[in-house]
Structures are given as C-alpha cells and as structure tokens.
Amino acid sequence: MKYLKIISLVFLLVVVFYIISSDLGNSNNQPSGAGEIWWTEVEEIEESFENIGSRE
Amino acid sequence: MSNLEVEKKVSKIQGFDLSTLWKKEGWWNVWLGFILIIGSIFGILNSPVVPKRWGGDDGGILHSIPLELIPGIILTGIVTFIIFALSIYFVKKEEVKSFLLGFPVVYLITVVAYLIGNYGPWRHYGFNDVIWALVIGLIISNFFKVPEFLRSAIKTGLYIKTGLVLLGASILFNRVLTLGGMGLGVAWLVTPFVLIVMYFFSQKVLKMENERGLAIAISAATSVCGVSAAIASGTAAKAKKEEISLAISVTLIFTVIMMVVMPAVVSFVGIDPIVGGAWLGGTIDATGAVVAASSLLGDEAMEVASVIKMIQNVLIGIISFGIAVFWVSIYEKKELSEASVGPKEILTRVPKFIFGFVIASLVFSFALSPEVVESSLPAINGFRGLFFTLAFVSIGLESNFKDMAKMVKGGNIITLYLFGQILNIVLTLIAAYIFFSGRFFTLPF
Q1: Does the ipTM exceed 0.85?
Q2: Which of B14, B21, B123, B373 counts the highest number of beta carbons within 10 A?
Q3: Backbone φ and ψ of B119, nearest 5°
C-alpha cells in the first residue's frame, strides 16, 4: 500500500511535469490560466456576466 | 489544559472589554480592511503598483518592471508599511521600530515573487506570485537562517486576515441569480454537499482528527474555488500555516491536470458544450483555469462556465462564516471541557476578520451602486493580492520542509482530494445535465 501511494504520487507529478513542459494547455493562446485564483483577476468573468445579463 | 487555564479562558469570554477594539490585532484586521475599502471608494487609494505580466506576447522581463514603475512600487511599499504599522502601533507599540527594519526586506521578497509569478507561460500553470512567495520564503528559511530583525515583519495573520476582509468586497451576493435557478442548481447544490461529505470522510474514514485544519482547507479548495477557498476556510478554522500551504499545493497540481483533461473529455464523449461549460465551471478549482478550459468548448460554454464559477465563488463567504462558527461551537467547546459556549461566546471567539469579510460583502452586494463597486474593486483587489503575497512570504519564512513532509507522508491528503474531486465531478456532471441540457428546464438565455 505504501509503495502504491508513492508510485501514484510520482506518476501524478510526472503527468503534471509533462503537461507543463509540453505546454498542453497552450499558454500563449489562452485568455487566462491556473495562476488566476479569484474571479476579479479574470476579465472574461465580468464580460460573461454582462453578456448573459444583457441576453436575459 | 490545567483548571487555571480553563478558568482564565472562561473568564475572558464572559465580559467584553471595549479596549480590545483597538488593542487586539484581530479587530485591526477589520479596521485596516475598512480603511482601505473606504479609501478606494472615495478614490483616495489607487491600485497598488506591482511588476506586470511578461513572457510570451507580453515581452521580456523589462516589460514587467520598467524604470517608470519603480517609484510606484516604492510608494506602494510605503503605503503598505504605514497601513500595517498603524495596527502594530496600537497593539504592540514597541515593535514598530523593528517592523520598520524588517518590512522592507519582506516587501522586496514580495516584489520578486510578483516578478517571477507574472511570467505568463508559468503563471498559466499556476505558478503565480502567491506560490513563488511561498517557495522563496521556504528556501530562505530552510537553507539559510532567517535573520532576527526580519521576524518582526513576519506577520502572517495580520496580512492574510486583512486581505480576507478585502476579499469580502468582491463576494457579490446580488449576482447569484445571473443564470436563474439553473446556476444555483449547479453551483450551490453540489458544492456544500461535497464539502460536508469530504470533511466527514476525512474525520471518520481517514481519521484526520489531528489535521482538521488541513482537512477543511482541502475540502473547501476542492468543492469551492481552490486557493482562495483554502486560505479563507483554513484561516476561519485557525489551521496551521503549513496546512494551508499544502492544501494550496495539492489543489494547484490537480488544477493543471483538470484544465487540460476535462475539455478533452467533453469533446471526446460528445457532451453538449453548454452542459460541458457548466460542468467545468462547477468542478475546476481555479477561476482562471475554468475560463482557459471552457474557452476550448466555444464562447457560450465559456460564458456559462465563467458565471457558474462566479456564483460558486460567492459561497466562500457563507462557508467561511459557517466554518468559523462550527469550529468555535464544536471544537473549542471541547477544549474548554465543561464550559458551555453560547451565542455570545461564539461571537466573542470567532476570528474577527469574519465580521469584516461579511460586512464588506453585504455592503458591496446591496448598499453600493454598481458604478461605485466597479470603480473601487480594482484597488481593493490589488491590495488583497498584495497582502496575500506578503502573507505567503511570511508563511514560507516560518515553515519548514520536515513538518510539511510529515503531513504528505501518510498519503491522506491525496486520498481525500481524489475522493472529493471524483464525487464533485460525478455530481456536478449530473447537476449540469439536469439544469443545462434543456431537457428538464428551459435555458435562461
């Protein structure tokens, strides 16, 4: 069980490292990313709120 | 706990000394938050100046910190120093001088954390200023000795709780019905359920009785909104600084995976983009990651995901208040053994920032005009971000790797996160299908 936990943790970190090093999240063409932690930091949230509000 | 200590604790909570309002740091968190909020509303305070985004299309490092920005960065440091020195003057006057010596160094580390954290390609994957603040602080404290003069400026509680009062201003309850009952159905039904089940699982199955702060911080981060929820809920539960740091690290690692995998699953399985947007909005922890992932499903999906996330973020206020009251009335009651903890005592013992946090939220939701909210929020949010980064520099400087490694070693953190996130993913998908597929309810747009 102990080794299973260690293997899972290592696998998890390898996957994250692969995603970042290969830029699978396409950082250049995305409006925002995981670094923005609160809705006020992301312009698209306010724009979406206004767009949906104006359509209702 | 000895009988004498218990008696002291009980006698403290029976009366209320008015001087605590200006002699206790807890209340100063509220006053400082209010001073900044009022200053921003009246246009006296502008957004703090910090290094800008760089890397990728934004240009090189010189774009982040051009010469003309430096006076603004210094002025921001002076204003921030004055704000916190005010509290220290009233609470512990003799510390002001040593705070003056230590604060510039802590602020300088904060500016460096902003500089590295604003490198776009890394920030996209969660390596923001808060993470770098923690990393730099940890490196200094674990590989070098933290100089004595710096300790007076390591004020995690003061920075983080004042930041949380400011966070209250952007919790806007008047927006929760933007998507009608559908949005609430996805964001407000599943979230509290997952939070409660996760915490119950941590205590009854994983037996994390000695890591309650860690358990609630991870549960809130998974069910509500990642880093901010971990900070707010962990602080409300008086969690250890290492527990909040670990909760944040775990949520960021999984956010990177979910941000890439979930839109791919939506497309591969052929889920309707609107349902997919609602699903992503309710499950991915970080707000920016929700927008990035859902934008791959189209504009409408991104709008639904964004608004679902915004509605879900509002829950952080209610949940943090609930956690603070729960902790005082259940766990602190046990610590006092036979002493009863009634409503008056609960109000006395709840962390004071919670009051400022709730009042700020109610004022910005219902008392101020949308124009005033819109014009004052950038400065308030700028200071909130700066205070969180200062707090995480302090956390890093106070933490050590051994304590953090001990908590990871048992494996309970990952098990708890995986259990909660799988539950969250399944239940939110069901809720997204019920409320946004158009089969059961008419879509509100």
Answers
A1: yes
A2: B123
A3: -75, 110
